Amino acid sequence: MFALNLRQKMLGCFCLHFVFYIIVGGIFFKDFALFSDDITLLTHASNLSNITLEIRRYEKNFIMRHDKADFDTVLKYINEAQQLVPQVTDDLKIMPQPSHLQDITAKLAAYEDNFKKFEKICKTVKDTDVCPLRKKVRRLGHRLVNITKDLVIFEQNKMNVFVETFTVDLIKTVFFLVLLSVFTITLLYTSIVKPLKKVENAAIDVANGTFSLLPVDEKKGEIRRVLQAFNKMVTDLEEQQEQLFQTKKLSSIGTLASGTAHQINNPLNNISTSCQLALSELEDDKDSFVVKMLQTISQETERAGEIVRGLLEFSRAQTFSPQAFPLTEIVCKVKQLVLGEVPAGITIDMEIAEDIIVFVDVQKMVEALLNLTINAIQAISEPPGSVSVKAEKDEEQKNVAITIVDTGMGIDQEHLAKIFDPFFTTKNAGDGTGLGLAVVYGIIKKEHGLIRVESTKGEGTRFIITLPLHSEPVESELFNKHVTPRGFNV
Length: 490
Hints:
Strand content: 5-15%
Radius of gyration: 54 Å
Distance between the termini: 57 Å
Number of domains: 3
Number of helices: 11
Strand order of the largest sheet: 2-4-5-7-6
Largest sheet: 5 strands, mixed
CATH class of the largest domain: Mainly Alpha
Order of helices and strands: HHHHHHHEHEEHEEHHEE
């Protein structure tokens, strides 16, 4: 069974209504043509009936008074009846009728002939009373009246039957039209109104903060595509809301971190300075326990200072200077910077098409990709392993998807939701500050992009960065700027 889309359903309903109206119009037009013929015949029959009644009236006057004027009037009406009879007989040819109605012409001729003979034979009123033609004339006149009366009654009955039949047909037509309208309304309701009502209610739920997907049936059509588009919108909105919550959380933490870092920085400087002065006083006794403790204090103070500087850089409002730049040159610079961090047994595979142009702050983008690449390398605790950086264009969406994949130990599912939180790290104490991915997240958001992570424990991790493509072609430029981004590793 083939499925019809919304346009086909609408066109089918329109054609069905159109055909229905054509058929009904044709039937009613035919019925009205017959009705018009009946009206004409009834009019002619009524006129003929009235004329025969006038003939009988003046016939009676002539018999009673034997007046020449009455005789002439009878002949005049007979002549009018004879002129009207052809119209009646023509009308009778197009429809069935009793056979005796066809005798009007013969009866009129017989009546005229006998009436004239009656006038010649009967010269006086006294002669009229005993004239043998009197009964025959009256009998013929009576017959004419009955025929015309029967014709009128016959036509009236026909019209009554027509009205009854037409009424039944009209009721059937209205009933069928009601059924057709109910079918059309039901079809439109189930195909358009009901799904759109679901979309409306779901949109209200989205406005109230509830993100729920709508069920999409298997039927193909515009409504199915609308529901799919709505579900995609809901999914995107939910992801963007999560990103917004993450951004607000980072903003709040950044404000707190900035104040805390400034408060901690001065005591750390004092501790470091005091420690260096104490070491300079005891440098002759290099093997003493106090010297070793002071050196440990100096090292830990320096590490605390690195954390404070990371906090300050994380919370500082960064100025971005985006420009159109080939992605392949950015990735090549990342590869150059990361080569010194690659242990034996780990391979770096970078495949970026040369025609991919992005509009980004080059130095910040290098910093973000460098952080992710170093994290991928460090995730492979036991070589051999590999790290791949690839990019694919989506011309329809006008963006590029950059993926950084490693074959490392992966991330537990319960940690994925917190991977971009500041100070969250899966590394051992002293191996990372927990700010690296938070900084990466901030950079990607500033570049109007998205970042997400997929990972399976024991099978590796995949970071996917989506950035908008630059719409205008640019000439590739050599990446000669000295880029030395700071990497914060998780």
